[in-house]
């Protein structure tokens, strides 16, 4: 069993403008999240957000604290959202077991001392995608199925952005301090997500792309609306989106992605929209 982490520092719009392709990828792209028998974590200084993946195969995986948060246990001052993007498995929280099927979610509140990830079948392991934020109070843990999510249909086939949004870990479904997570599924024939684009200066965001077919890719767009940049991404990769940046993408096929947010408020609709014709 391995627990490993890396730290990413916050970047301003001015310094981001001067980054090369390699520099953009180094600062914002998160690769190799899903490795067998490993918990991989990335701690970003944008809102102290933690992104991670856990794939238990030959043994269970226990979530342990990491140096940057300087705590006795991982959730001492934090909360966490989890979505299973693999086969069936379970998360045991201080002795209570939560079974998670594909695309089911779990919110775990502050103060829980032990979190253990397990797969039901070693030949078809679960893959747990994790987002964690600082938390100011203790809230109850809760499992959320796909049917329990708040579901919104958006876009159209004419603009190649017909999609289903499932708000899984949001305050209309489960009370949280700060973390919000959901899943957007692009319909066959649609490739654009979050278009028209927007920014929300009061919250940062992380996208995790999955269900990207083999030999296909997603081009993720970021940057200020008048100074955009792009990062090509593969299946099971994540990308950090600063509060000042748009976060949009287009794939060579349809795909699914998980969005996670943290920041000053929990208002999903608090965003500043950018007209397609205004992007540069």
From TrEMBL:
Documented EC number(s): 5.3.1.17
Pathway: Glycan metabolism; pectin degradation; 2-dehydro-3-deoxy-D-gluconate from pectin: step 4/5
Cofactor notes: Binds 1 zinc ion per subunit.
CDD domains xref list: cupin_KduI_C, cupin_KduI_N
Superkingdom of the organism of origin: Bacteria
Catalysed reactions, semicolon-separated: 5-dehydro-4-deoxy-D-glucuronate = 3-deoxy-D-glycero-2,5-hexodiulosonate
Enzyme class at the top of the EC tree: isomerase
A GO biological-process term: D-glucuronate catabolic process
Cofactor(s) the protein needs: Zn(2+)
Alphabetical UniProt keywords: Isomerase, Metal-binding, Zinc
UniProt xrefs under InterPro entries: KduI, KduI/IolB_isomerase, KduI_N, RmlC-like_jellyroll, RmlC_Cupin_sf
Binding-site residues for Zn(2+), renumbered to this chain: 198, 200, 205, 247
Molecular function, one GO term: zinc ion binding
Family indicated by similarity: Belongs to the KduI family.
PANTHER family per UniProt: 4-DEOXY-L-THREO-5-HEXOSULOSE-URONATE KETOL-ISOMERASE
Known role: Catalyzes the isomerization of 5-dehydro-4-deoxy-D-glucuronate to 3-deoxy-D-glycero-2,5-hexodiulosonate.
Protein's name according to its UniProt entry: 4-deoxy-L-threo-5-hexosulose-uronate ketol-isomerase
Native source organism of the sequence: Arenibacter certesii
Encoding gene, per UniProt annotation: kduI
């Amino acid at each position: 069993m391995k627990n490993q982490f890396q730290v990413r520092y916050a970047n301003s719009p001015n310094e981001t403008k001067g980054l090369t392709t390699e520099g953009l990828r180094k600062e914002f792209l998160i690769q190799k999240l899903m490795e067998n028998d490993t918990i991989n974590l990335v701690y970003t200084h944008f809102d102290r957000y933690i992104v991670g993946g856990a794939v238990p195969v030959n043994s269970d995986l226990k979530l342990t604290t990491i140096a940057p948060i300087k705590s006795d246990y991982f959730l001492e001052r934090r909360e966490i959202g989890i979505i299973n993007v693999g086969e069936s498995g379970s998360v045991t929280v201080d002795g209570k077991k939560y079974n998670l099927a594909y695309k089911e979610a779990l919110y775990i509140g502050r103060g829980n001392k032990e979190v253990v990830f397990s797969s039901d079948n070693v030949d078809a392991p679960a893959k747990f995608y994790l987002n964690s934020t600082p938390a100011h109070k203790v809230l109850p843990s809760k499992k959320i199925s796909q049917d329990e999510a708040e579901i919104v249909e958006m876009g159209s086939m004419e603009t190649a952005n017909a999609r289903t949004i499932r708000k899984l870990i949001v305050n209309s479904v489960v009370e949280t301090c700060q973390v919000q997570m959901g899943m957007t599924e692009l319909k066959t024939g649609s490739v654009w997500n979050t278009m028209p684009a927007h920014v929300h200066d009061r919250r940062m965001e992380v996208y995790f792309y999955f269900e990207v077919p083999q030999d296909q890719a997603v081009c993720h767009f970021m940057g200020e609306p008048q100074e955009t940049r792009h990062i090509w991404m593969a299946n099971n990769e994540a990308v950090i989106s600063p509060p000042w940046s748009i976060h949009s993408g287009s794939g060579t096929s349809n795909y699914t992605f998980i969005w996670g947010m943290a920041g000053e408020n929990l208002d999903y609709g608090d965003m500043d929209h950018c007209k397609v014709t205004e992007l540069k």
